[in-house]
Amino acid sequence: MYNLITEPYFNFTSIQESMNEILFEEYQFQAALRINGGSLSAHRYFQENNSELCCIVVDSGFSFTHIVPYCRGRKMKDGICRINVGGKLLTNHLKEIISYRQLHVMDETYVINQVKEDVCYVSQDFYKDMGIAQLKGEENLVMRDYVLPDFSAIKKGFCKPREEMNFTGKYKTGEQILRLTNERFAVPEMLFHPADIGIQEMGLPEAIVNSINKMPEEMQPHFFKNIILTGGNTLFPGFRDRVYKDVRALAPTEFQVSVLQPQNPICYAWEGGKLLAENPDFEEMVVTREDYEENGHIICEEKFDV
């Protein structure tokens, strides 16, 4: 039985060696392959698009966001870029905003993560939406009321339909309501402008363009037209359109820009892993327990391109 395990880019050698020991010595795996999640996404993309030689995978997940260029199935290490903004940071920031403005929710990570997924979106015009969010009453099209769960009558929080909203803010029911306005789009905006909260790093569009600019000049047009979005943060409404709009503004005018969002960006890497495991060459990629017992960690370093 073969096992496929994903790990972050540029993982520490000490962690990799510990993982090898756990897999082969403690759990007695017969064979294993350690690989990056982005490599599996790229494999899936290249299998679907045989004519394409290059792609750039944007993987925006729980802890951070990676931008990784691939050519002929291999990652181009010089172009890998990491932004230290992920879903965890967005949820924590939303907790802080709500706790400061309305209700102490610092201990309610699970609930506020659900709030984030249900009501947040990526703005196409930040300053315009900020202006709308400052309007009063029904003119404020950004405002939403979110009903928090009480885990007895209301098992899961939900967003009140706009026609049921009471713009005076007073409800007769016993429901506990969060009123959300500019935080709906200001929280996901951190992916595009981390400097807004003091993280001195490039935003996502600049990082994509910076990564492509590190590639050989003749390959750059191919990367711009094969940008793939994966990871949970890409599910924010408006995410793909904003990435396209901002990258298009930064890219040379003669280059075509195309941004693909898979149907299920969370499982895209898993689907790539499934395809890879069905590949006839898969047996040559793995390290068997016999290989490991004979050669130690060095065989893993040689075989695993991580």
Automatic annotation (TrEMBL):
Gene3D superfamilies: 3.30.420.40, Actin, Chain A, domain 4 (3.90.640.10). Keywords: Cytoplasm. It is found in: Cytoplasm. CDD domains: ASKHA_NBD_Arp6. One of its GO terms (cellular component) is cytoplasm. SMART domains: ACTIN (SM00268). The keyword Cytoplasm applies. Belongs to the actin family. ARP6 subfamily. This is Actin related protein 6. The lineage of its organism: Eukaryota, Metazoa, Chordata, Craniata, Vertebrata.
